[in-house]
Design a protein that fits this description.
Pfam families: Lactamase_B. By secondary structure, the chain is an alpha+beta fold. 34% of the residues lie in helices and 25% in strands. The protein is globular and about 65 Å long.
């Protein structure tokens, strides 16, 4: 995965899987830094020998590099605040809790999902119960501090962090602002290169994600950090790019519905049209989840309708203007 840093100083690229270079710590502003892992991992240095991670990265891909970096810096992870619970964002929570005694803070909804393998299976509904531990087991663990819907400030290890409610990419996704006026957006927004390369972006709720992105037009911080990826001085043009990409993909999937089609037929059409490399069952299951999210959005805004054909649920284009029709028949 390449990490592109787009800001006042230009652009630099890192490819963790090819270059295998040691991770390093880079200052954003004041005590707020970022780590060049498989994604941008922001962090805050509250005192000598301590570090607070804003998301903890992949267990399988980032753990060794993070551990080596922290050993070089002679810092221990005293706290982790998660924007959301996905395998590339909370995969080292349990590891650093056991190793360093890290205090974990997470949005309530996300913490509930990661409280047990069965709860996680409810979120990743397309996986079987026995698939969850080997594929996503690093996500499962206890949370010490629950960030509730409506909370605007959360203290962690004596440091007050501002909280922005940004659901959509996941049910309880948040943005986190450090005392240095740096806003970490997690996956609520993706970078310019990621927009260009995104074939099928992931949204738990398109409608909620759209509202969250629109809300970001009115916020003002000195710096913005994105997990995928980089640090920006301004995000307004990036918001435009993200919203255009979302609508383009939505329209492309709608256009692939050429008649009454089952979800499986549409998923196959999307995979072929986007040249998705489906090389193992887990990827096929994730593709199903992601396409169904688009279909739900198209149903809710009236672009598609539902019907039953010999007991099989079928999707069809609605008549008239997209977004103007009912959602069932």
């Amino acid at each position: 995965m390449s990490i592109d840093l787009c800001g006042a100083s230009g652009r630099r690229s890192y490819n963790r899987q090819k270059v295998k270079k040691p991770m390093d710590l880079h200052q954003i502003k004041g005590n707020t830094y970022w780590i060049d892992a498989t994604e941008t991992i922001p962090c805050f240095l509250p005192g000598k020998g301590e570090i607070i991670l804003l998301d903890s990265g992949w267990g399988s891909l980032d753990r060794k590099g993070l551990s080596e970096l922290l050993r070089r810096l002679d810092r221990r992870v005293v706290g982790i605040m998660n924007t959301h619970a996905h395998i590339d964002h909370n995969g080292n929570n349990v590891y650093f809790k056991e190793k360093d005694g890290a205090v974990i803070a997470m949005p309530l909804t996300e913490a509930a999902l990661t409280s047990s393998p069965l709860m996680l299976k409810a979120y990743y509904y397309m996986l079987s119960p026995r698939q969850v531990p080997p594929e996503l087991g690093d996500m499962v663990g206890p949370t010490d501090i629950l960030i509730k819907e409506g909370d605007t400030v959360q203290e962690l290890c004596g440091v007050p962090f501002e909280v922005l409610q940004l659901p959509g990419h996941s049910p309880g996704h948040i943005g986190i602002a450090t005392p240095d006026n740096v806003l970490y957006l997690g996956d609520a927004l993706i970078g310019e290169k990621e927009v260009q390369n995104a074939r099928l972006p992931v949204f738990f709720s398109h409608e909620a994600d759209l509202e969250s992105k629109k809300k970001l037009y009115s916020v003002s911080y000195e710096k913005y950090a994105l997990a995928h990826s980089g640090v920006y001085d301004d995000i307004r043009e990036l918001l435009d790019l993200n919203l255009t990409m979302m609508e383009d993909r939505t329209r492309e999937i709608r256009d692939l519905v050429t008649g009454p089609m089952s979800a499986e037929e549409i998923i196959a059409a999307v995979g072929a049209a986007l040249k998705m490399n489906i090389w193992r069952p887990m990827r096929a299951q994730l593709l199903e989840r992601d396409v169904r999210s688009f279909l739900n959005y198209l149903l809710d805004r009236g672009d598609l309708t539902l019907s039953i054909d010999r007991g099989i649920l079928k999707y069809s284009k609605a008549g008239g203007e997209p977004g103007k029709q009912g959602n069932t028949q």
